[in-house]
Fold these 3 entries.
Entry 1:
Amino acid sequence: MLAEQFVGQELLVTQNAALYYWARDAKSSTAEIDYLIENNGVAVPIEVKSGRKGGLKSLHLFLEKYQKSKHGIVVSNQKFDILESQKLKFVPLYFASSVSKLT
């Protein structure tokens, strides 16, 4: 929760806009994305991970459902990385204030 709060505050300051999230409630599965930012009229999903646990199922589901989103961003304690085949960019927590520059 602390990592999500930190990233949210950084996005508020750098985006100068309201924060949004995405949630889907399906009959037997739910999905949510921590934050959405806008880039040229297209939603960019941001998922915050504080550790190694947990997958990115919701992020993959979002990217599959909303094809206009070119990629998703994962903010975590991991190093910078780009997985073009999965449309993912991994960003360290300390770089959270500059996430919008990656969109």
Entry 2:
Amino acid sequence: MRIVEIPSGWSSIVRIVEDAGEREIEELLDLEERNEIALVRAVARQRERAASRMAAKSLAIERGFVDLPSRIRFTKSEARPVVLVDGVEPLLFVSFSHTAGIGAAALHDAPVGIDLEHERVIDPRATKFFLRDDELVLASSCSVENALLHWWCAKEAAFKLAADHPTLLRVPLALESESAEGLVLRGPRGSRVETVRLGVSLVAALAL
């Protein structure tokens, strides 16, 4: 598997994996996990789902949360992913995202949200579904390339973090700063959302 390079400030929380091989999948995911993933219809979706779980498990081992990949698993509670270590829910939070066969995971000791998108152009007419009027004004003034995709990623990450807004449109974001590579925004309840371009074809957002 290949680990995608990310900002150094994200490295203790985020891991992004692509090109996961069969042997690596078998090493990090047990048979039950692989069977669950096999229920996903599209093969590409299976690969990226496996990659996101591998990302979370390898990061958990690196951080010292567990010593073996079999000790950490992921389930759902009210549609949110939940971490289990030795069958017990510890004070750890996880968020997953997938795109174009690539899987991302954020693992933290506080609520977290991650979003990963393959580079694409968002039709300005679609902004009515995720940007309020004041946010659209801010997004339109951003100089970062493909600003609407950065705002989309930020909304998705903040949505996963907050988990109490029914739609992306209801998730409030305020722009704090921008650079050539991404944005820094303020999200719900004072959360911080950062976006960044990764390589030439990915945009990611992390909400904390």
Entry 3:
Amino acid sequence: MIRKFREEDTVKVMTIWTKGNFKAHDFIDKDYWLLNFNKVKDEYLKKSDTYVYIEKEEIKGFISILGDGYIGAIFVRIDSLRQGIGRKLINYVKEKYDKLTLNVYEKNMDAILFYVALGFVNTKIQVDEETGEKEYVMEWKEEKVNN
């Protein structure tokens, strides 16, 4: 089941966020994520549309959308990876937006392959000013059927 994020989900979502960043972005110092923890928890979650994936009454993953279709975060619990949860979260927001964009680090090849498999294309390569790491700007657009 996917539902809207609630305030009481904060601790579990932030635990998934922290552990997910440590695993997926092991090429970035852990202090970077720890220094951004409160900003994400206190500001970002309040400004975004966040949805959580729940299975057996446990939050297994979440996705956060900022503005008009920008995926600022998508994370799945490490013990629940490769079970289709990320795909379900992406497909859920595809129903709400005609266009989705995201940034993904070039060194996070598993994520890049995941996004490509879901129809995202690379539109730009840039350097994340905060980390100095190269990242791709990827985009998905709903295909319009012409009759």
